[in-house]
Structures are given as structure tokens and as C-alpha cells.
């Protein structure tokens, strides 16, 4: 095509679409990547959309999610997408902050080599200037970045990953400090010792013959293991504490099936975070495991995620206006399939809930169930003991009805 000014030959640039447009529907293409006729088939997006969980940083997610939702609504308006919203849930991961050293007077950022740590608080080396020590977003200009290569060479990938994920929610900001590594290393060592003792106890026939626990004590510890295993399965982020519970159990309990199930659950839950350590532990564990619940023929990373036992009581939180939530324990086999009616029946059979309901009339209930986790049952009530501030003739409803009725002339003007 000729240029409009000089008339010379030119070729129109067609690659002008913003990259955000390309990245705003990639999740749809992933569902049907080999389709050569269309971007994605209707059946593929209908059966698999919307995306269950969107994980992204706050800065990126703000714009990308806006464009992705815009494109999805557009495709839905054309009948190409069955769902207007592309994502069910959003998790914005927290930022890892690095320690910074800034001269208080000038605001200049210093490297660690420029800081004198021999005094408390630290000062600028050479000048003795006072410093402001804070945690900020890692950047080269602030000299607070961490070289992953150095950390991995010193501690390994498993320990580093465990440090990043331990004791923090995925969306929480965390301050990077090497001072926390000793605690992580000690925890891994305790788990290693627990598995080693388990193997030794299972192999040593003399120790097995000397088990001094009575039947009552054995049952007490079995109940303890059952409760703790299911409790920590329910909140898997707490599985690090679970090791401490296992270490408190008498060695004789290592011969029981309940302990074996508990230790297997601990190792399996650990495997996504520390696959190398967990695989070593699993190999030793399987060498002496005897429970039919242990699938020794399946590699660790292909094991099913441990599930809460069907008879374990999960919390049903009953929320009544003006009262603290009442917790009713319901077996998982019942809670997972609860309806509003069955949940209400369980709640009203609880004495604590009954006491909170005295003098109140149930208006409506709302139920939310998270299978294997728990449930929330919300009540709306009318308090029968509360006297109305309005008489029947002056209530807001009566006044509204009166305002809508035809106006009557004043009595003095009537004929």
C-alpha cells in the first residue's frame, strides 16, 4: 500500500494487539490445545470452566484479572463461553520482604558490607551514622535481595521450600531471615528420628515383647492418635505441629495400626513441599509397614491425599445473632451430605444451641458446607421477649400503608 504523504510503498503492521489480550484467555486454550479449527471447543470449556483457583501476585492480578474477565464476558455474550466469570477463587500470594539498612539522615541504602554489626543497634561502617532497619520489597537498589543459588547450596531445595511455606498463609507477607533455618532443620531432624524409631521398634522383637502398656493405656493413646490425625488433616497447614504430637506417644504405640496411619499421613502431607526428604522417609517407612491402609506398591508422590475418617466429628458452627457461635460436632459421613433441614435438626438437638434459642423464634437459616472441613449454619430470629417501640397504629408499616391510601379531608371541612 502507498504512503499517504510521499506515495512510497509500505506494508501495514498487523501485529499491534496488546499482549494482555493474548494472555487473557490462555486458560481456555489449555483445555483444547490441539484444536486446529477454532480457539477451543464449546464442550471443553463447558465441562472444565470456570478455573477453580487463580494464583497470582497482587500487582499482576489486578490488570490481568480485569482483562480476563472482560474477554470472558465478551465470549459469553457471543455464546462461545458458558460461564461469564472465568475464575471461582483468587489467591494473591504474599511478598517476601528483605531486610534493608538505610542511613537515617541521607536516606541512602547500604549493603551489608557497609554496616557495622558489632554494635547494637548497627550503624554505618566508618562514619557511625544511625541507620533505619526495616523490611521492604526486594530490589537491587535497596541491596536487600537474596541470591537463591547461595541459599540452595547451603540448605538444599527441600529445607528452603519448607522455610518459605511454614507458619505462613499463602497470602501473607513474610520477612526473609536466615535465623529461622535452625528451627526448620530441627523439625526435619525430629521427623527423621521418629521414623527411625518406628523402623527400629517394628524390627526389634525383644522391644515388642517388653511392651508395658495396659489395654486401657493403649486405647487412650489410640484415641489420642485418632483425634490428632484427623484434626491436623483438617488443617493441613498445621501438619508441622503434628510431628510434635507423634513424638509424645510411647514407643509401644508404634506397633499399632493407628500410629502407622498417622505417620503415613504425616509423610504424605509433607511430600509436595519436601519431596526428597519425604521420599527417603517413605522408603524406610514402607520397609516395616504392615497395615492394609498403607499402599506400599504406589510411589509416594502418587499416593492419595489422606482423608478424614468418616466417623470423626467435624465442627458445625451455629451462628445466632447476639451470641457466640455454638459448635456442634457432627460425624463427617453425615456432615458432608447435610441439607438445611438436617443441619437445623442437629443444631436444635444441642443443649447449648437450645439455651441460645430461649425466647426466640427461628425465621430463616442459611447453610454452608465444606466437605471434610466443617459447616456454618446461620440463624435469623425474631426476639419474642423484645417489646416493640411502635404501637400497631404508629408502626413504620402502618405509616407506609397510610401514606399510600387516598388522603382524607380534615374533619372541619367535611360535609
UniProtKB/TrEMBL annotation:
Q: Which Pfam families match?
A: Anticodon_1 (PF08264), tRNA-synt_1 (PF00133)
Per the record, the GO terms for biological process are: leucyl-tRNA aminoacylation; mitochondrial translation
Domain named Aminoacyl-tRNA synthetase class Ia is located at: 136-169
Reactions listed under catalytic activity: tRNA(Leu) + L-leucine + ATP = L-leucyl-tRNA(Leu) + AMP + diphosphate
Question: Boundaries of each Methionyl/Valyl/Leucyl/Isoleucyl-tRNA synthetase anticodon-binding domain copy?
Answer: 238-311
Which superkingdom, per the lineage? Eukaryota
Identify the stretch(es) annotated as Disordered.
Answer: 387-415
Q: Give the E.C. number(s).
A: 6.1.1.4
Q: Which UniProt keywords apply?
A: Aminoacyl-tRNA synthetase, ATP-binding, Ligase, Nucleotide-binding, Protein biosynthesis
Keyword Aminoacyl-tRNA synthetase listed: yes
A GO molecular function held by the record: leucine-tRNA ligase activity
Q: What's in the GO CC field?
A: mitochondrion
Q: Would you identify the family this protein belongs to, as annotated?
A: Belongs to the class-I aminoacyl-tRNA synthetase family.
Name of the protein in question: leucine--tRNA ligase
